[in-house]
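User: I'm putting together a teaching handout on how multi-component assemblies are represented. Below are the sequence lines for each component of a complex, exactly as they appear in our records. Could you produce the 3D structure of the whole assembly as structure tokens, so the students can see both representations side by side? Please keep the chain order the same as the input.
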Amino acid sequence: MTVEFPPAPAVAGFSLSGDKPFTIDSAENAALCRSTGVEPAADGTAHEIYFFIGTQVGMGQTVAGLCQVCEFDVEEGPMMGGSQVTFQQPLKVDQPYLVTGEIKSLTRKPSRKFGAMDMLEYELRLSLPDGTPVLSTTNTWALPRRNLV
Amino acid sequence: MTSSASNLTVGTALQPFRLEFVDPEWMKTWAVALHDPNPIHLDVEVVKAKGLGDRVINQGPANLAYIINMLKKAIPGSTIESLDVRYVDNVLGGDAVEAAGSVTDIAIDASGTRITCDVWLKADARDLVIKGVAVVSIAV
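Assistant: Of course. Below is the structure of the complete assembly, with chains in the same order as your input.
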């Protein structure tokens, strides 16, 4: 028997561009490096994981806000599905960056575990204030839709 | 087993990066950095109430950071060009984890050496947490 679900919210193209620069704090970078078992770089470069942190913090939505755009309550537990990133240049501490991006797709599909889930894909780009590209990243989240079954 | 580009070949196993104890205290620092106050990373009582076990859950980006550390240590002097990973499972507070990888392709041109690797993170208690592909480069 095929189960019919209502369509996912039409959010493709929704802007996730931030409205103010994001700067990697050198003390925070040092703390996060040490939390993962390494010392911060001495040359002013930041840990590469700031590709995720910087774009998430600098985009125009909080995680809860992004979920809300998708008509999903963050309390339901969004799950990270995957991350892709391509670097054009290294990340540096104390360097302002701008974040632009948008939702690429929200696709509803059956789930053996949850009954139904929406797969959210969004792309974010980090650039220098003069527009020079630094990196682009695409994240995928699974949003379980227990209420649809 | 730390490698320079000259002694890497397809199939070379990268030196693992191991963390013996994922400290729940550090999850508070990550929560602030990520601007993500989700209590499943911070409050074990919330984790229990949600039926997610009895230990706080490490943030996914922290898990990916262990893989990045492995790449940087295993191939000194390299620059990460790209990562493409899937989050398969969680790391829990108190877990021991190990990031590792293997070389799948090496391309050399005038600008340097580009090395493609399968990478993964495993938690001792539950096996695979992250898997994916990384491309790193070493300039001439």
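A couple of points students might notice: The helical segments of chain B are 24-34, 44-49, 60-74. Residues 5-139 of chain B form a domain with the Thiol Ester Dehydrase; Chain A fold (CATH 3.10.129.10).
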